[in-house]
Amino acid sequence: MSDLAHYCKATGCVWAADRRRLMCMTHWLRLPSALQGRVAEAIRAEPRASAGINNADHMRVCAEAVEHIASLEGRPLENSFRRLVGIIERAEQPCIVEGEPA
Ligand SMILES: [Zn+2]
């Protein structure tokens, strides 16, 4: 996939988005400034989507932003960021490996 293709992650939106913002300008401006700050911070820390995908905190703040817009617009809250948070959290749960020292 091309790095140039960045689309707004708000549910149902197909506008192009600045890669530092996650969303198109219309949706970005509907986020509370505190949430904008946390999204921008997460993207700065993890500019490559492929790295962010393994980071639960990164995915959690993206999910929060997407859900904020969805609730403003009366859309379903379910989104792929939240699903990924669930997957990462399950993967991070400690598993007992037989024979390993505690
Ligand atoms: Zn949008």
* Low-pLDDT sequence parts: none
Question: How many angstroms does the end-to-end distance come to?
Answer: 42 Å
Morphology call:
elongated
Put simply, the count of helices is 5
Category from helices, strands and their pairing = mainly alpha
| Helix coverage percent | 40-55%
Integer-rounded radius of gyration:
16 Å
Strand content: under 5%
Order of helices and strands: HHHHH
Q: Got a strand count?
A: 0
Biggest sheet details:
none
Question: Averaged pLDDT, please?
Answer: 87
Account of the protein in words:
The chain is mainly alpha-helical and 102 residues long. The chain has a domain at 31-92. 51% of the residues lie in helices and 0% in strands. The chain has five helices and no strands. The longest helix has 18 residues, at 56-73. The protein is elongated. Bound molecules: zinc ion.
Features:
mainly alpha, single chain, 102 residues, 5 helices, elongated, binds zinc ion, 51% helix
